[in-house]
Amino acid sequence: MTPKYDTGDKHIQCGRRVDVFKFWLMWKAKGALGLQRHAEKRDDFEMVVAEPECTNVCFWYLPPSLRSCPRDEEFLTKLHRVAPKIKERMMKEGSMMITYQPLRQKPNFFRLVLQNSSLEKSDMLHIINKIAQLGEDL
Predict the structure, then answer these.
(1) How far apart are CA 60 and CA 17, in angstroms?
(2) N or C: which terminus of the chain has fewer CB atoms within 10 Å of its end residue's CB?
(3) Distances (CA, A) of 122 to 6, 28, 52
């Protein structure tokens, strides 16, 4: 897979309205608690905002080198480099493609939008385990 297939930076929104409608239907069917049960807490991932206000799942991967660091400017600078490096590795490997972006003063984070209600826990574990594998040496 080459970067030419990564059209995320070329559009003002990453998902289409149709996809958001599908997600809304799934949300109505499963409810917030049903969707919450799909998530598993890990110490190597952190949500960008505690209470999400939209359908995107925004998170940081914290490589082992950053997990015990003080949350200072140096930490934020290093964290800002993590998502771009992991995405580069995803693209070279051809395994996945997940977009990232900063938000105001927050460093780059992954932004994952899923609209497929047939996804299973194993699919989600594959995604986070792959991110952890690609970033474990950072």
Answers:
(1) 26
(2) N
(3) 25, 23, 23
CB 115 within 8 A of CB 32: no
In a domain, 7, yes or no: no
Domain that holds residue 68: 32-135
The total domain count for the chain is: 1
Helices and strands, number each (H, E), in the chain: 4, 4
Cα dist. 22→15, 25, 26, 114, 138 in Å?
11, 5, 6, 10, 36
pLDDT band at 1 (very low <50, low <70, confident <90, very high): very low
Residue 27 lies in a domain: no
Per the listing, tokens 């600078």 go with: 77
**CB 132, CB 79: distance < 8 Å:** no
d(CA 63, CA 13): 28
